[in-house]
């Protein structure tokens, strides 16, 4: 199984493409520049099965409709942010995008509660990790020691909590309960910036010390 990090748009939001030996793939957070995502998938001759969203802020969903329509695949979002795809005031595009409002179609699949999520041969543990936003989730691929954490935890930083629905204490609880309890060598694939590991953040993340 392989993963590829594709930073997109002015905020360099990380889209990830996870593929298996059968050339099937899962797309995480297609934030912008749909053409780049499609080109990569076609160049690698991959067969996408689904789009998984860690949350519904505009910079993580901007290319969703174009990508899922092109490949005719479903999108997954947590129930607490299902309406955000349709509402520029909720997904933040009304505040930050200077007229480029993000209004998308509803997601085909609504997630609720922590669970084992199976899509084709892919199997994830779904963790609810609110704080950055109320419906933030992380997808843990236990067999490969990977977690797709969205904007919950970054290399030497954490997600912002000053946007609607953000809650700092809740974010810290999510990080400590759901992420820092994972094996120390777990690779953290964050929504922005470089890849990190759980042990690196336990040792060097200044926002986690003393909590």
- Total of helices: 7
- What is the CATH superfamily? Ribonuclease Z/Hydroxyacylglutathione hydrolase-like
Helix/strand/pairing category: alpha/beta
Residues in β-strands, percent: 25-35%
Overall pLDDT level: 95
CATH topology: Metallo-beta-lactamase, Chain A
- Low-pLDDT residue spans: none
Number of domains: 1
The side-by-side strand order for the widest beta sheet comes to 1-2-3-4-5-6
Domain Metallo-beta-lactamase: 12-192
Cofactor: Zn(2+)
Keywords: Hydrolase, Metal-binding, Zinc
GO molecular function: hydrolase activity; metal ion binding
What does it look like?
Residues 12-192 form the Metallo-beta-lactamase domain. This protein has 211 residues and is α/β, with parallel strands linked by helices. It has a single domain, classed as Metallo-beta-lactamase, Chain A. The chain contains seven helices and 14 strands. β9 (137-141) and β10 form a beta hairpin. α1 runs parallel beside α3 (64-71). The mean pLDDT is 95.
Give a topology summary.
Elements: E1 2-8, E2 13-19, E3 24-28, H1 34-43, E4 47-52, H2 58-61, H3 64-71, E5 75-78, H4 88-91, H5 93-96, E6 109-111, E7 115-119, E8 122-128, E9 137-141, E10 146-150, E11 153-154, E12 157-158, H6 168-179, E13 187-190, E14 196-197, H7 198-204
């Amino acid at each position: 199984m392989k993963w590829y990090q594709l930073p997109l748009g002015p905020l360099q939001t990380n889209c990830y493409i996870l593929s298996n030996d059968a050339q099937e793939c899962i797309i995480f957070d297609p934030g912008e520049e749909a053409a780049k995502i499609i080109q990569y998938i076609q160049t690698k001759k991959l067969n996408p099965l689904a789009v998984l969203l860690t949350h519904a802020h505009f910079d993580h969903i901007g290319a969703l409709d174009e990508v899922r329509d092109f490949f005719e695949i479903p999108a997954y979002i947590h129930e607490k942010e299902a309406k955000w795809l349709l509402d520029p005031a909720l997904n933040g595009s009304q505040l930050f995008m200077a007229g480029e409002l993000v209004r998308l179609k509803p997601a085909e699949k609504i997630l609720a509660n922590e669970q084992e999520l199976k899509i084709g041969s892919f199997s994830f543990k779904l963790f609810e990790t609110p704080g950055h936003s109320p419906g933030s989730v992380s997808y843990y691929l236990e067999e490969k020691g990977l977690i797709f954490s969205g904007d919950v935890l970054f290399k030497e930083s954490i997600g912002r909590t000053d946007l609607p629905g953000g809650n700092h204490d809740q974010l810290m609880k999510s990080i400590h309960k759901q992420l820092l309890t994972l094996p120390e060598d777990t690779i953290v694939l964050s929504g922005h910036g470089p890849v990190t590991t759980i042990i690196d953040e336990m040792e060097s993340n200044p926002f986690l010390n003393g909590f």
